[in-house]
């Protein structure tokens, strides 16, 4: 390992890639962001965007032609749970001295607890709960994917919103300021709503969730949707704690995870903590541990 000079953490998902580069002490030197690298979008595409983003990071350090052979990289990637994709990704290593490939959920967990045991509930476009117990056991809750899972997430709220749009369009529910804002996106006729749904994937569905949040205090249905989402977050947490009731849990994610906090049952919310670091930092922990082995 005497030739290793840098450690790299990579957080790769369906909307982008975030990398951090550190020295052998594990302290971050620089970060960079790039295109999507979820394995479900193709392993070759993932590697292309990851290497471009890593090169951009090294350029910030004044290194135009980094030698990947002097680097250990830790990856927290969406799609790693599909073993064939993960194996193909590892097989196509473009020359890093060593790589450690984990789920983005586990890298988020490592970052949230700064490498210690614990659990996380990640809330964003989708959702998942993950725990790493003191005995080494790992648990996953939810995360089955769109449209059948992702409880409490942006996509979950979006599905409730598009169903409400359908009810308004055909006269089962009254039109309100909330529904008018929704139909400004989806259209307000059967034809336009069907057209919108024809291209509705997880991200498009989740794009309706900010409208739900916007009307959470003024519209009873929007508030109901958010309270139901908050309750789903609690249920995920209860499942993670089924064998370790005192398991420390961090609620992680972007803007939605913060916006949802007032709607999560208070007693459960008080038993959680804020994450210490992010998924990119967690992936860097993977690389740092690999250096020591």
Automatic annotation (TrEMBL):
Pfam families in the cross-refs: BcrAD_BadFG
InterPro entries attached to this UniProt entry: ATPase_BadF, ATPase_NBD, Euk-type_GlcNAc_Kinase
Domain ATPase BadF/BadG/BcrA/BcrD type: 8-287
SUPFAM superfamilies documented for this protein: Actin-like ATPase domain (SSF53067)
Protein name in the entry: ATPase
Organism: Chitiniphilus eburneus
């Amino acid at each position: 390992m005497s030739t290793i000079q840098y450690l790299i953490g990579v957080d790769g998902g369906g909307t982008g890639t975030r990398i951090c580069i550190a020295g052998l002490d594990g302290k971050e030197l620089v970060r960079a962001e790039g295109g999507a690298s979820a394995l479900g979008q193709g392993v070759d595409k993932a590697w292309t965007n990851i290497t471009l983003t890593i090169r951009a990071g090294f350029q910030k350090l004044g290194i135009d032609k980094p030698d990947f052979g002097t680097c250990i990289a830790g990856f927290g990637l969406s799609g790693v749970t599909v073993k064939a994709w993960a194996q193909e990704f590892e097989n196509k290593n473009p020359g890093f001295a060593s790589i450690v490939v984990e789920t983005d959920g586990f890298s988020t967990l490592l970052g949230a607890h700064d490498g210690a045991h614990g659990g996380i509930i990640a809330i964003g476009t989708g959702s998942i709960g993950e725990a790493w117990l003191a005995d080494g056991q790992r648990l996953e809750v939810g995360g089955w994917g769109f449209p059948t899972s992702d409880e409490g997430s942006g996509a979950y709220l979006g599905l409730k919103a598009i169903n409400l749009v359908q009810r308004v369009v055909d006269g089962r529910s009254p039109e309100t300021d909330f529904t008018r804002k929704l139909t400004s996106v989806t259209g307000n006729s059967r034809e336009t709503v069907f057209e919108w749904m024809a291209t509705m994937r997880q991200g498009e569905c989740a794009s309706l969730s900010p409208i739900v949040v916007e009307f959470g205090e003024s519209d009873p249905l929007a508030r109901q949707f958010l309270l139901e989402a908050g309750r789903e977050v609690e249920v995920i947490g209860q499942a993670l704690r089924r064998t370790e009731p005192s398991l420390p849990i961090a609620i992680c994610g972007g803007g939605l995870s913060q916006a949802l906090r007032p709607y999560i049952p208070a007693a459960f919310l008080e038993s959680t903590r804020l994450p210490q670091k992010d998924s990119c930092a967690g992936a860097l922990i993977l690389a740092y541990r690999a250096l020591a082995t």
